[in-house]
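ugh finaly. both done.
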Amino acid sequence: MDEPIKLLVVDDEEGIRDVTEGYFLRKGYEVFTAENGAQALDIINEEPRLACIFTDINMPVMDGLELAERIRQIESTLPVVVMTGYPSLENTIQTLKNGVVDFLIKPVNLEQMELTLRRILRERELFVENLILKEEMARQARLKELNEQLVERVEEVNTLNRVMEDFSSTDSSHGIFNKVVESGVEELHADKVFFHIFSEKTLDLIQVASACPKERDVQMPDAFSSDIPEQMKSYIQTHVTNASTPCLMPDAAGNSQMDAAVQSFMMAPLKIRENVFGVASAFVFEKGRAFTEKDIYYMSFITQKAAAAIENVALYENIYDNLFATLFAFVTALEVRDFYTRRHSTRVAEYAGMIATEMGCSEEELDLINVAGMLHDIGKIGIRDDILLKPGRLTDEEFEKIKEHPAIGADIITNMGLWDREVDIIRHHHERFDGNGYPDGLAGNAIPRLARIMSVADCFDAMASNRPYRKRMERTLVLKIIRENSGTQFDPEAVDAFFRIVDQIKETE
């Protein structure tokens, strides 16, 4: 009876070792496992008849690259397959130097591992025969071929990784559309790439993005300067409607369905939940160049990743809108109790935005202060009516309760899981520049800059508008108080900016 084939799996993650060992044991292999390169060498020395080794790269004690080098020194015909979740050009070059025969990207499909193993074992048998029966030159040629195949495969992996990174860093639909066409130009070396939204009802193609090379001159036909010619658009519409599959025309010259300027053409639909959402199309106008099967594979991969990114953006935007709706529902509930709060919050957001603009804040900061301004008093929903709506002067104990609302509001926003910087503004908009504010007694620049701006806007409106317990103060008195408290209660820079824009603020009714 033949002995089972012996494998060694080296990985510092116990779960991966256990799953891999269980799979190959069921397939009739004899499996050894190690959690690092040092343990693997001990097993190799004890079990000289190992057929193949699968190893991770990043491991403690001894990593996979050093292990591969040690194995090459001990037994140069023992095949080593590297598995990694973070492929890089540096690691790839190093593995080639160390005699690694294949390169798998995590998460590794177990069936793929077995197919790789079978191929390697067949190749190893041939390789051993070559060592015995063929001349040294034949062996060198075979090794060179294997290395070239590995380099080509790693280049493919790097391309796919670049595409995935591009789409993972894009957070808008428009950005995704642009990434599709830019990736087509960069990765496929196309002369022009278009992306069209496709309507399954009307069959219309609506262009939303296009790109052409910037680093090389392309003789761009006039017919493709703004959009695809109608003749070709009709062909794409028909193909998507009837097949909704990728299409490759390596040699499009002379094809009656193509524009005369097109030498090579391909297109790939972008599907969301099996429905065609859009179409990416790529063109070569330069004679002598043509798209290949690998190019259409890449293009299909690009549209697949774009589809996933669009779904993620749509989901995020839906969650974001729902959170806003929930928060403003809280504000609405508070308005029912205290109508002043909603009107006050709207004005504070407006005034704070004016001050922030005057101080040169960025667009992102203006968005932050607008959201925080609308929600800065949301914590008052946690204050009892008899305190919040009390018409007379508050007792010291009641005022302490009122002082809890910034922290309550920050907690509400925090529990929504978004807007960390808005949380800081809401929590600290009652801090004082001299450190005598609440809830944390921060002082000076320790108070977030946008919270310091919010403090001026909030106090101005609080004094200049009617409150449940008093009438609004005269505008001249309000401005006098703000000026006198510059440097103590308020940030002097924010106060100066406020006085530069205060004439634009109308008196409240």
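ok and the 2nd:
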Amino acid sequence: MRPYQICTQCIMDTTDLSITFDARGHCEYCNNFHDTIQPNWHTDARGMDSLQALAKTIREAGKGQDFDCIIGLSGGLDSSYVAYVAKEIIGLRPLLFHVDAGWNTDQAVGNIEKLVDGLGLDLYTDVVNWEAVKRMQVAFLRAGIPDQDLVQDAAFFSGLYKFARKYNIKHIITGSNFSTECCREPEEWGGYLGIDKTLFGDIWKRCGDGKPNDDFPLVDILVYKLWYQKVLGMKVHHPLNLVRYVKNDAENELERRFGWQRFQHKHHESRYTRFYEDYWLPRRFGYEKRRAHFSSLILTGQMTRDQALDRISRPEMDEHFLKQEFEFVAHKLGLTVEELQQLFEMPKKTFRDYKNKRDLIGLGANVMRQLGLEKRYFR
């Protein structure tokens, strides 16, 4: 077994089984940040010039239409702040688009309402068939893989892309950014590279309830990367990479302007994601996505390594709360607590135990990196 090692600059460690370190003890994520991301990441006047040029392109493309772009809004920090930037900083006319997959926290719902009212924007909420979501989530739990949040992600992005295509909205604004996400968790930690209909289909065939689940929305990654974007001309933009985006400052700004409420940690706007990242993934598989989240903040100067080590030394939520959430998730999925516990204790598997298009998707990701269109390290 490989001896334990932790990066001397961030807190990524050998729970990422393929991680490598240089002679200084710096990991490949840190080196990628310093060598690839940082030299090409401009949030000064150059970034503002690029942002204004982008805004002009989007405004011109949207002339005569009700909206010139669409923003997927979860109520979390990144999507909330990018909505603020789009409307208040660069004067766009976005449609806010929310996918309700059944797991919103009350805090997330409140944040969405406050932003809609405060920014004076329209909101469209796509409510996914709950039975379809529930059945697919149970199938994924039965599959035994770490990638349990793929179901929600598939519902969110598929709903957004389908809506944009239907109404011919060419410009999609996303809150994805380098500032809080420059260290991308490895796919072994549940970071599968996209919506793979082949993977979903095989898991449903082998672990589903034996009936069709046609109401669950799925747009395959190759469809939205190739057909929607390359053929139909849909563009995805990342404005937060062009402005000074500091997590604490952004939270303060949204709180001051709109009464927006900050979350204890990233992705806590979804009750299922919070449970999955705070309980299921670390306790069943030994993977802490917080390592990647905190390492991103270390690299971008928003957290010290000592602060991150202290925070990672204990669970984000207390034991009583996590026990209650385990019971809540079980009941909401139509399982007994004992049945969910049995799924927790079942043999561990990975996406490689099911049919998938990972090699093809990985090839596309590598091409994007070689072309300079993707700066983050994918593995």
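summary for the 2nd one i guess: The longest strand covers residues 94-100.
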